[in-house]
Amino acid sequence: MDMEIKKINELWTDIYYLLRYNHQEKLTHQNIRILQVIQKENEVGIKEIATAIQVSHNTASEHIKRLIEKKYVYKTRSTEDERKVILRLTDLGMELLHRHSSLDEEKLEQILFDHMNSDERQLILEAFSLLKERTADVYHR
């Protein structure tokens, strides 16, 4: 089993490396992780960011302040509790996160449609869907 895990990690990082976007923005790994938390979680505030990236509240607040200044993130109020500040991605923040954490869609399209047949594409979709489904099962326990 250990060899399977190592192989999946190797394949995953190889795929990402080969199919990643080229980007010029100077963002830290912490910045990307923060943007991901805001995108993937529901009603995230500074406290949740601090917990997710394992830093103090003050450090998380400084990170958020810089992301707001760069216009990647904005603050809003919770619809359930007006006292609670919620962080959201701007359109620019969503675009930036996509380029820094997703596969380049043009490269992916070229691989899927120029080098794979429909059965192979379906197999890839099913495998990724199954992996995501099982990941969600484990993550939400």
TrEMBL record:
One of its GO terms (biological process) is response to stress. One of its GO terms (molecular function) is DNA binding. The keyword DNA-binding applies. Residues 1-133 form the HTH marR-type domain. It comes from the Bacteria. InterPro entries: ArsR-like_HTH, HTH_MarR-typ, MarR/SlyA-like, Transc_reg_Sar_Rot_HTH, WH-like_DNA-bd_sf, WH_DNA-bd_sf. Keywords: DNA-binding, Transcription, Transcription regulation. Pfam families: Staph_reg_Sar_Rot. The keyword Cell wall biogenesis/degradation does not apply. This is MarR family transcriptional regulator.
